[in-house]
């Protein structure tokens, strides 16, 4: 994917007030030069989340969350990077450069037209619902009230083969658009007709609230497949989308959990009864993309399936997708309902409180994992234990490093004995090493220089010849040089934009922590300290070269060029003292 130009990101962040962006979502209180709030990314009683208008970035001293206005929108509104950039650009009245998008202008225009066509179809289906007694009676019978119908933009596709086509396909261009977004079918003779007929229609929204596809449900059991979904299109990939996720985001400022169910009506009914964290896969098993999307939105995920064999198989497929994404802090649970029941029927019979009680009694992933693997294995035999170890080990190896993965492996070891030292043959005790006391280190000049640059990047413009420290073998020197070079290339860069440059790199977290520290002093003192630090680093580089030449002299001698260089370096060193 083509990158958005750095200059545009700098300009965008410069025009975006992070206090305004964050403050529109989180209540901020002014504290001196900065603003504070309770962190929106973890539970806390005292405010450890700060937003700096001068540095244009946020930092939480509790959980370590940090970033710019872009990363805040990505984490809080759960947007993709490009979506967050477009959201900020819209607020700032800016146009994202065309070359930032890998698609041609014609393709972008076509996508906008497709979204418009789907929106028009949504409004058409909603209008048809208003005048159809059969569809309204069906929804009333399922307990779906007017507010819920509006929340999900539920509509009705009329019976007959050309209602939508006649209403919206008024010319060849519109016909092609409606076909590309999956609203038409074609028979063997090439005749085009409406794909959805006599069905209750459920629009499927993307993460920005745009309709990208539809699901249609029959009202009578014998009227064809229960659910009919739009085909895959340029806008819609069923393995990457979740029905109801947009509505969940709108209903919950903070999403503590997500409940994955199988049908659209399950999601709608749960919302109707106040359970506003339900989503559904779109006629497919839970995919790895689904799993990643679920955990990006909530730390706890509940999979709710029928209790029959098919439901348990669906649960196992979900587990296979979730397992490689079980980082510490994430949890997955499995709830299997009684025969003949689904979330829709259960919540209508028992109510939201009883459904919540069932969720609290759901099976943790760890238990479901071992229960399923041992279902047909006799752990009373060595053969059975070996078979369990053989099946479980490759799957457990997929879990990211951390406490959860370690505990799962320990449980497998407890159940099978595989990996445990034989009884009476304990491993020899490792020799006890004396604790080494780390030498007291002097304050790092490199760290001090970086900290000052993060406070006020423009101070780098006052330095001349900063490449004179290139080649100095000290930790962080290459990072310092990169920061200096960035400011020289982009003189107006802010702290937030500087940190954005390191997004996704291993140095990012350390830079954010350093930027969050309030340095004593003012611009004048920082300027002097930065200048002094660079001068000292230049001295260290000179001494480094002197030491190299002296070592070479002792080992093999110096030629005339080396001797001349050493004499000049010693003269320079004498003048620098």
UniProtKB/TrEMBL annotation:
Its cofactor is Zn(2+). Coiled coil: none annotated. Gene3D superfamilies: 3.40.1360.10, DNA primase, catalytic core, N-terminal domain, DNAb Helicase, Chain A, DnaG, RNA polymerase domain, helical bundle, Zinc finger, CHC2-type domain. It holds the Pfam family Zn_ribbon_DnaG. A zinc finger (CHC2-type) spans 39-63. Its EC number is 2.7.7.101. Residues 93-113 are annotated as: Disordered. It is an enzyme of class 2 (transferase). Binds 1 zinc ion per monomer. Residues 256-338 form the Toprim domain. The keyword Acyltransferase does not apply. PROSITE patterns: TOPRIM (PS50880). It catalyses: ssDNA + n NTP = ssDNA/pppN(pN)n-1 hybrid + (n-1) diphosphate. RNA polymerase that catalyzes the synthesis of short RNA molecules used as primers for DNA polymerase during DNA replication. Monomer. Interacts with DnaB. Contains an N-terminal zinc-binding domain, a central core domain that contains the primase activity, and a C-terminal DnaB-binding domain. HAMAP family: DNA_primase_DnaG (MF_00974). NCBIfam families: dnaG (TIGR01391). Belongs to the DnaG primase family. This is DNA primase. It comes from Stenotrophomonas nitritireducens. The gene is dnaG.
